[in-house]
């Protein structure tokens, strides 16, 4: 049976898609380390060591390993269902300004004649992100998720996002083909029919796991931003990403109004508003030429 997917079509106004990693990009620590690991009686560092060892010993994806470990350690200690994961998510701490950031940037876009959409592309847990106060701010959350049995208990990974397959979601956003099972992501689109050209994408991340997305966005004319913890001020990772040509900019993960990243993203929106007017004129010239050839 053919499935009809709901796809987003090209808008009358330009669309800027801001894509975020989650852990250490919007939140200062791994989400699993902000309640879950402690609740099953595990030391945080030991939990990650054991999951990495599990992955290494079994030629296993590290995301599958940590998800397996979460299910295993929850047995007999807590009811491991969506509600519990959402509860953990509701307690996740975020960087300064995150709570008001998404709507403020959308409003700035509206003032400039630009539609701003926010997307999560993360190797964290979708169910936990959905439990955060800002969950409704995202057009789509692409993250690891579980399969649940008839009693609602997590049994098995249903979907996994690792550092290399993160890039597929950028192509989905580009074409408006957002459902993870929609094969339309492989269809050809004329450049003028793309809903969000890569030049109108912003990728914000903090580490090596974001590099494939950052590199892709950069190579196709978009903007990548590396962030660092404003509490520690440690710029080691972002300096390396600049040296390796992985990012165009870096800024502290302080999302309050008037901060460096706030001004940077607003400048990108300003540039998009002007650039898309020129692109529209270019397309108009091309179409007229085709019609008279």
From TrEMBL:
<dbReference type="Pfam" id="PF12710">
    <property type="entry name" value="HAD"/>
</dbReference>
<dbReference type="InterPro" id="IPR036412">
    <property type="entry name" value="HAD-like_sf"/>
</dbReference>
<keyword id="KW-0378">Hydrolase</keyword>
<dbReference type="InterPro" id="IPR023214">
    <property type="entry name" value="HAD_sf"/>
</dbReference>
<dbReference type="GO" id="GO:0016787">
    <property type="term" value="F:hydrolase activity"/>
</dbReference>
<protein>
    <submittedName>
        <fullName>Haloacid dehalogenase-like hydrolase</fullName>
    </submittedName>
</protein>
């Amino acid at each position: 049976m053919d499935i009809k997917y709901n796809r987003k079509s090209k808008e009358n106004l330009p669309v800027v898609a801001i894509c975020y990693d989650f852990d250490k990009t919007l939140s200062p620590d791994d989400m699993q380390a902000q309640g879950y690991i402690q609740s099953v009686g595990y030391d945080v560092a030991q939990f990650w060591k054991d999951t990495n060892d599990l992955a290494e010993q079994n030629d296993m994806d590290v995301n599958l390993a940590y998800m397996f470990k979460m299910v295993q350690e929850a047995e007999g200690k807590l009811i491991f269902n969506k509600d519990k994961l959402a509860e953990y998510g509701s307690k996740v701490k975020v960087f300064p300004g995150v709570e008001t950031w998404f709507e403020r940037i959308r409003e700035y876009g509206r003032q400039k004649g630009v539609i701003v959409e926010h997307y999560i592309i993360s190797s964290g847990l979708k169910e936990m992100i959905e439990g955060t106060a800002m969950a409704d701010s995202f057009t789509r959350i692409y993250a690891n998720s579980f399969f649940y049995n008839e009693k609602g208990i997590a049994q098995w990974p249903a979907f996994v996002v690792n550092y290399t397959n993160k890039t597929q979601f950028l192509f989905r956003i580009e074409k408006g083909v957002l459902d993870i099972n929609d094969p339309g992501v492989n269809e050809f689109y004329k450049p003028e029919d793309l809903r969000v050209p890569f030049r109108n994408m912003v990728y914000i991340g903090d580490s090596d796991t974001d590099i494939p997305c950052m590199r892709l966005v950069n190579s196709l004319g978009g903007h990548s931003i590396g962030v660092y913890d404003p509490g520690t001020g440690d710029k080691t990772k972002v300096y390396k990403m600049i040296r390796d040509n992985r990012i165009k900019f870096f800024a502290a993960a302080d999302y309050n109004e008037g901060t460096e990243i706030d001004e940077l993203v607003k400048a990108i929106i300003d540039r998009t508003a002007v650039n898309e007017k020129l692109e529209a004129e270019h397309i108009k010239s091309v179409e007229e030429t085709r019609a008279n050839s």
